[in-house]
Amino acid sequence: MKKRTITAALLITALSITPVFNSYSDTPGISESTSEALPTVPETGSTGLYTPGVPQADNAPTGSSEETTAGIWTEEEILREQQNRAWLEEQNRLQEEALHSQKISEFFRDSVVIGDSVAQGFANYAANNGTFPVFQNLKFLTRVSYSVHNAFMNISGKSKHPIYQGQQMYVWDSLKLMGAKHIYTFFGLNDLWAGADNTVGKYLQYIAKIQQEIPGIKITIVSTTPIYKSAKEEFNNDTIRVFNAQMAALAAENGWGYIDIASRLYDSEGNLAKQYCSDKGIHQTNAAYKIWQDAFLEYAEAHLDDVT
């Protein structure tokens, strides 16, 4: 009886162990080598790219451009960091440039250039280059043969007042309608037949009339530009230099602005340089008007802090 009991116990034990071995042998992915069956853990070497239990995005290198608390960056990481910094610097540069351009544009808001055919040429140049900050708000009241001498003539079919809203007007009336707060005046080339002193006197009368009609308006004198060496005029470049010197002194004395374009257009003999003259007389090329543009830009940059 005892022998039968032992035999039965052994049989039960054998039956209970068999499923365990079958289950183990049927498990997929289990190889003979236990080292091949276990997952591989990324190393935490000198790259500092992985820390067990920390998400990949949270494990990016931090610190200086050359090393992190986890170790030295790879060449690829350093290059990427340099590229990122270069991109950020370029974005900052572009943002500063855009802000500066906006300030220049705003500086010329409610500003008007007044003058003759040479100033009209600048107006034409501005119309073709309207995206430049200088020209985005700058306006013009110009006309061929306009001068400080004929600015007081009665309006008629023979007068030479600038046209605004389709008709001739005295410039001070046009300026009122335009809401002008700052004028840039260019005269002399149609005036200096009367001599420098006479023209200075008439210029002052012209400015006084505008100030009377529009109190508080700002005044900036634009220097009279030189003429070509063979220009057939009743005056010469020496007369222009004397006239400009007097107007520059009056501008300083009265608190007006002054833009010296003339000295930028001279050749070695003190005449209008060939590349800046379009007709061997007084009129100018686009290359000359690029000089005008630069002069106006520099003037604005020098007076940005004056804007209230």
Description:
- With 308 residues, the protein is an alpha/beta fold.
- It folds into two domains: 74-106; 108-306, SGNH hydrolase (Rossmann fold, 3-Layer(aba) Sandwich).
- The protein contains eight helices and nine strands.
- It has helices at 2-26, 34-37, 75-107, 117-128, 171-178, 196-213, 237-254, 286-302, and strands at 67-68, 71-72, 111-115, 139-142, 163-164, 167-168, 182-186, 218-222, 257-259.
- The strands form three sheets. It has a five-stranded parallel β-sheet with strand order 4-3-7-8-9, with helices on both faces. A two-stranded antiparallel ribbon has the order 1-2. The protein has a two-stranded antiparallel sheet with strand order 5-6.
Q: Outline of this structure?
A:
This protein is of the alpha/beta class.
Number of domains: 2
Shape: elongated
Summed up, the helix count is: 8
Query: Can you tell me the CATH topology of the largest domain?
Result: Rossmann fold
What's the β-strand tally?
A: 9
Q: How much is the radius of gyration in Å?
A: 41 Å
Average pLDDT over all residues: 83
Our estimate of the beta-strand percent is 5-15%
CATH class membership of the largest domain: Alpha Beta
| N→C terminal distance | 119 Å
SSE series? HHEEHEHEEEHEHEHEH
Q: Largest beta sheet: what is the strand line-up?
A: 4-3-7-8-9
